[in-house]
Amino acid sequence: MEKFISSAASLLFVKCDVLVVGASAAGLMAAISAASEGVSVILLDKNLGGLNHLANTLFEGMATRSKIQVEDCYLQKELEGMRIISPSGCSVTIPAKGYFIDRQKFDDRYKHIAESAGVTLLCGEAHSAKLDGNRRTVAVDEDKIHARVVIDASGIGATIARQAGLCTMRHPEDIAWAMEAAFEHPGIGEESFFQYWVGSMAPGWKATFSPAGGDQATLGVFVRRHGPNVQSFFSRFLKEFKAYKAAEYNDIEDMKILTIKRGGDPICVLPGEMVSDSLLVTGGAAGQSGLAYGMRAGSICGTVAAKAVAAGDVSRRFLSEYERRWRSEFYWEYRMGRSSLETLREVPDREIDRLCMGLSGKKLLFGGSFLKKAALLGARISLVRPGIILDLIRNLAKDQF
Predict the structure, then answer these.
(1) Residues 143, 281 within the same domain
(2) Is the whole model's pTM more than 0.85, yes or no?
């Protein structure tokens, strides 16, 4: 059982080198990385004893790219890859090894790593982080924490960063609002592929089926530009999913929904401002989508914060090393990701069907650098739908940051 300060009520006044607000995956990694550099770190979250995060999948390529070693203690099921399914049911298989993780065990594992690195875990809610010379004074309930560097890793709300005047997302209107249900049905979790439906069923992103082993799985929808309430999209997907699986499973209509989670995925908002004097922003708060990529961003962020403290310079200029390092690793992936999803959003269902039929059975996974892989994949897709490259370029040109 982890040890943490359950309340800030008796603190009154605390000092630390780095304060991380939010025990997201990015926040946990920021805290661990900063503490590993020898500075004092507090990790603050109002729900520290019962985190309830939505993301529960990792892919081997992204994990390797982000220097994450997937561990057995939270691994629930290993999968062979993914299937992209068109509105009419045509599928394209991509053999990209992936993992369904037990998110509670994952969070517990990284909280333990943080504690072992010397991080102080604190339950409480940060209400503001006022700049005070070369540090920030963070209001936590009735008390205050003075930190040389504050890291906002609180998720898409990014309360501290917004109060500091930062616009952390270039396209906040493109948050993909999500609703995901954990459910059980005999044998449903034994399938070997994640399955992602695209098209009008989940405009702008996807509807998902994730086998979790045994009788367990999750269903979800991630929808852009239709507001935070995506219940109607989920209800439609649930109905169509049951019809799609009816031939494979007896009594699929009786599948039992166990829990439902709601949230937002900044899948293609593109990161905006992530640095100010004595302040850094990481993970979902900075529009850095993806569990693995968010963790890598947090790691870079924590390291730079610690080095700033050690150098005695927590200015925006010094801390901008974080943004430079992040951009050198991920800039093109995020730009291409948004361009791809914007192009997909514009394609009607019948064209998605044609595209999937043309790509079915074709090799879509390539080696090499990101740009090489993107070029080869684009060339393969253009053989099926020649105009798509022009659409991708047009959307890519819209967003330089």
Answers:
(1) yes
(2) yes
